[in-house]
Amino acid sequence: MESLYDEFGNYIGPELSDSDQEEPHDEGDGVIESEGPGGDDEDMEDAAAGDEDEEGGPIGGGQVVLAEDKKYYPSADEVYGADTETLVMEEDAQPLEVPIIAPVKDKKHERLLAEPLRSTFTPEFLAALMTNGELVRHVAVVGALHHGKTSVMDMLVEQTHDLPAAAKHHLGFTDTRLDEQARRMSIKMVPMSLVMEGGSGKSYLLNLMDCPGHANFNDEVTAAMRLADGVLLVVDALEGVMAVTERAVRQAVAEGLAVTLLISKVDRLILELKLPPADAYYKLKHTIEEVNKTLLEAAGVVPGSDEAAALVLDPLRGNVAFSSAQYGYSFTLSSFAGLYSEVFGEGKGAAGRFDPYELARRLWGDVWYYPDTRTFRRKPGPGAERSFVKFVLEPLYKLTSTVISEHPKTVERALAELGVALKPSQYNQDVKPLLKDVCRAVFGGASGLVDLLVAHVPSAKRATAEKVTRHYSGPLDPDSLLAKCMLEAAPRGPLVFHVAKLYPKQDGRAFDALGRIVSGTLRPGDRVRVLGEGYTPEDEEDSAAAEVTNVWVYQARYRLPVSRATAGNLVLVEGLDAVVARTATVVAEAFDSEEVHIFRPLRFQTLSVVKIATEPLNPSELPKMVEGLRRVGKSYPLVSTKVEESGEHTVLGTGELYLDSVMKDLREMYAEVEVKVADPVVSFCETVVETSSLKCFAESPNKR
C-alpha cells in the first residue's frame, strides 16, 4: 500500500472533496466565524442553556464537568433543614485516636454498693439508737500493718450483715478503694456503724473506724482519734508489739482516749508456730506486758502505782480480748466462762450450775486447777495445770485439731457434746471454711468484744465534755449557753458540728464531710456557717455560709440517709466541701447571741519531709493540674503543695508510698492529666541545740 505522504510529510494522495476541507479561519483575530446570520447570539443561548442544565437539571450533550463540581451527596441544609447550624471541620483537624463523640467517662476509684445490705438491724432501729448518747460508742481500730484490723471489721460485718457467699473470701469491706484491695492494705480511715448485742442481749451502736496500719498514713489515724472516744489496739499474737503499735499507744494517751487491747490471729500460734498450750500462754502474756510497758511510759506513770493500776491492760479487768478473725471468733475471759456455764451448767440442778464471773476471775495469771479435788489454788502442785491453759487453750487446740485431722463424723459427734449442730452439707467443705463454721457455731457472736467496748470506752454523751475541754479553742464560761450545751451534748442546744475528715465522691469533684455533732441537731436543708482553721472572732474572713443538702450514716461501702442526727453522733454531711479545706467548725447561720470559736486543727505525729516536683506532660493542662492539687490537699490531711521560685510545683508527703498514692489520685481522679514527676528528695536540716562542754577545733583545706 502506497503511502499518502512523502518523505517530508506532505500529502500526496488523491484529491480531497470539498466537504472534507477545513473551514476557513480569520488569521487576524483567531475568532471562529459563525455559519449563518445570528450565529453569535445562538452560541450565547446555547451556553446559557448549558448553565441552566448544570444547575437545574441533567447536563446534556458532551459538555465536560470537573470532578470537584459533581454533587455526590445532599447538602446539610437539604437533610436537616435550613434552621440547623452546621459545623464544617477541616480535614485531619482532630487526631485519629480521639473519637468524634467522646464516650461518657465513668470514673470508679471505689467499690461501692448500689443498695444497702440486709442486716440484723433496720435503719429505723439504728436511727433510734442515735438519739440515746449513752448507747453509742466511738472507737478507733488501730494497730500495725497486717495485724488484722480490717479482718476484725470483716468478722463483725459478717455477723451483722447478710453477705453473698462469693464475697466472704477476703472481704475487705472497709477497704473500699480499688488500690487498697490491690495492695491488700488500708490507705484511708473508713468508719462503719454497727448495731451489736452485748452478753445481756442489750443493743449498742458501735461507730468503728478502721485505720491504716502503715506509718506513712498516720494522718488518717490522727483524724480518727479526734472523733473517737476510745481505741481498740489490735496486736498480732505472733508478731507482738511493733513500732507503729507503740506510736498508736502514745498518740492515744496524748489524746486522752481509753485504750483496750485485742490480741488477734491466735490461730497462728496453733497452726503456724505449733506451740504447746503452755508456751502459747507465755507468748500471750509477754505481748500484754509489752503493751502495758509502752502504755505506762507514754502516760509517764510509775509501774505499781495507783495510777498505773487504773491504766494497765489485764484480761482479769476485762479490757483484753482474744480473736481469730480468719476463723470468725473472738472472746474474753467472761464470755469464755459464759460458754462453760451454758454448755455444762444447764439442766444439772443447782449443784451443777456456777457463776461465770467466779470462773472468769480464775482463768488468768498464776492460778492452777487441781482435777483430783476440782479446786483452784495459787501455787502449783503435782498434777495441777494452769487454769488458762486447761480451760481456754486446750479446748481451742482440741477443737482445731479435731476439725483438721478427724473424719467429719467424728467432728459431728464432738460438736454434739457441746450442743452444736451444723448442716450436713457443711461437713463436706474444705478444712478452712469448715473450721470457720465450727468456731462461729461454738463461740457465737462477738458479744464478749461488745461488752469490753461498752464497759471500758465512755459513751458518746459522757465523752463529749472531754473532747470539748481538750480541743475547743474558746473559753468555757459557766454562764455561756453555748459552752454549757457543748459540755452536756445537748440535742436541743445551738448547733456545733466539728468536721475532721473529707471524703471524695465517685467523680472526685466534690467532697463529703465526716464530723461529730457536739451540740444541737443537724438536719438536711439547714443553713449553716462554716468556720475555717484561720477563723477568729476578730477576723471572720475564713468563714462562709452553706446549706446542708444530705446527712448520712457512713457504712463503708454504702450510706444510710437520716432525717436528723443529734449531739454525740458521727455523720457524713454533703454540701460543705466548697468552704472546708481540711477541718472546720460548723454552727447555725442564725446563731449570733455570743462569740463562737473553732476547734483546734489536727496535731499530727509525723511531718511531710519527702518532696517531689511535678509538671503536666502537656503544658496547656497546667490549670487542671493545679486544681487537682487543691483537691488532693483536701483528701490527704498531711500533703502540702508549694510553688517554688523557679515556677515548679512541689508536693510534700510523709513517704514514697504516701506520695505514690497521692500521684495516682491526681492522675486518675482529681486532675485527669498525665503528670511528670521528678525523683523524690528528703528535706533534711540540723542545728546546734546546746553549747559543747569541750572546745572543738576544725581545720579548713588551706590549714587555717
Automatic annotation (TrEMBL):
It is found in: Nucleus. Pfam families: EFTUD2, GTP_EFTU, GTP_EFTU_D2. The keyword GTP-binding applies. Residues 17-56 have a biased composition (Acidic residues). One of its GO terms (cellular component) is cytosol. One of its GO terms (molecular function) is GTP binding. SUPFAM superfamilies: EF-G C-terminal domain-like (SSF54980), P-loop containing nucleoside triphosphate hydrolases (SSF52540), Translation proteins (SSF50447). Keywords: GTP-binding, mRNA processing, mRNA splicing, Nucleotide-binding, Nucleus, Ribonucleoprotein. Its main location: nucleus. Residues 1-62 are annotated as: Disordered. GO terms for biological process: mRNA splicing, via spliceosome. Residues 134-344 form the Tr-type G domain. This is Elongation factor Tu, chloroplastic. It comes from Raphidocelis subcapitata.
